[in-house]
Amino acid sequence: MERAKQQLTVLRALAEADGPLSARELWSRLSGTGVGLATVYRALQRGVEEGMLESVELLGGGVRYEPKDREHHHYFLCSTCDHAFDLFGCVEGLESLVPDGFQMMGHEVVLLGTCDGCGTAA
Amino acid sequence: MERAKQQLTVLRALAEADGPLSARELWSRLSGTGVGLATVYRALQRGVEEGMLESVELLGGGVRYEPKDREHHHYFLCSTCDHAFDLFGCVEGLESLVPDGFQMMGHEVVLLGTCDGCGTAA
DNA sequence: GGAGAGATGATACTCGATTCTCAGTTATCT
DNA sequence: AGATAACTGAGAATCGAGTATCATCTCTCC
């Protein structure tokens, strides 16, 4: 296997994904390539430091990563396969929910349900 | 201190809170009462089993708990004190974000920013 | 070809969250 | 009061995520 290029392998896999991936998810996708878990973490960390990746936190713990060049978007979390999918578009009227004295600096919307594959398979 | 009533103490503290609390948060609020952490976890677990409590997961890991009798609502997560506040009201237009073939069964909206206390103090 | 720097995989380790264990405590029933 | 079962607090044990370590490998430069 090639060395010194694992970082690229990691970034590429992330770019090809249809949503943010956790370190473990990413690692299992690269399992055939012999990349170590530590390398995945290192590549992700470096990617974030260099501004190429962004870490996102969704429900259920774990941090996931995705390329930073994507527009503002939200996620669909499949309760069956636990995979997160990007959703493009946003919602309105969030400001009206903010109580007096609170300052909203961002928001996160996560839709829950079953994805295409899991819903069909069931 | 009274025994056999710690479960009630825990449920009451949760009912009086202005948002979902994590086990630790709850424990620190009860620190004066001598309730043990294990007891807090036990009370929460029993509360969920008996249908009185609901566990919610927000960004940033940790599971939080709140009484199940509350209406559909969302949360405001303060990035300074890391406390979650209930927000009543909801948003529209979420269905339009769902891709073909996906089935939405629920949604979660979390507003991020600084709460009343933290914003004022800063 | 050889030296040095950076990258890598395997694994040990750390840290926090949650659960388990156990002996002592309390309420209930007789 | 005595027996029994449920409850409790403290601390040990467990588990998973993420990090640190280390010997090895690869690339670059000389």
Structure description:
The structure is a homodimer of 122-residue chains. Chain A is α+β, with helices and mostly antiparallel strands. The first copy, chain A, has two domains: 6-67, Orthogonal Bundle (Arc Repressor Mutant, subunit A), CATH 1.10.10.10; 73-121, 2-Layer Sandwich (Dna Ligase, domain 1). Chain A contains four helices and six strands. Chain A has helices at 6-16, 23-29, 37-49, 116-121; strands at residues 21-22, 53-57, 63-67, 73-78, 84-88, 103-114. Chain A has a three-stranded antiparallel sheet. A three-stranded mixed sheet of chain A has the order 5-4-6. In chain A, β2 and β3 (63-67) form a beta hairpin. In chain A, α1 crosses α3 and α2 packs across α3 (37-49). The model of chain A has no long low-confidence stretch (mean pLDDT 90). The A-B interface holds A 57-62, 74, 76, 79, 85, 87-89, 91-94, 96-116, 119-120 and B 57-62, 74, 76, 79, 85, 87-89, 91-94, 96-116, 119-120. β6 (103-114) of chain A pairs antiparallel with β6 (103-114) of chain B. Chain B binds a DNA duplex (30 and 30 nucleotides) through α3.
Defining traits:
122 residues, three-stranded mixed β-sheet, three-stranded antiparallel β-sheet, alpha+beta, Dna Ligase, domain 1, Arc Repressor Mutant, subunit A, DNA-binding, homodimer
* Multimeric organization: homodimer
Radius of gyration of chain A: 16 Å
In the CATH hierarchy, what is the superfamily of the largest domain in chain A? Winged helix-like DNA-binding domain superfamily/Winged helix DNA-binding domain
**What is the CA-CA span between the terminal residues of chain A?**
38 Å
Overall average pLDDT of chain A? 90
Strand order of the largest sheet of chain A: 1-3-2
* Share of residues in helices of chain A: 25-40%
CATH class of the largest domain in chain A: Mainly Alpha
Largest interface: A-B, 40 and 40 residues
Tell the overall outline of chain A. Answer: globular
Percentage of residues in DSSP E strands of chain A? 25-35%
**Per CATH, which architecture of the largest domain in chain A?**
Orthogonal Bundle
Which spans of chain A of ≥5 residues are poorly predicted at pLDDT below 50? none
H-E order of chain A:
HEHHEEEEEH
Please report the number of helical segments of chain A.
Answer: 4
Number of domains of chain A: 2
How can the largest sheet of chain A be summarized? Answer: 3 strands, antiparallel
CATH topology of the largest domain in chain A: Arc Repressor Mutant, subunit A
Overall number of strands of chain A: 6
Q: Which structural class best describes the helix and strand composition of chain A?
A: alpha+beta
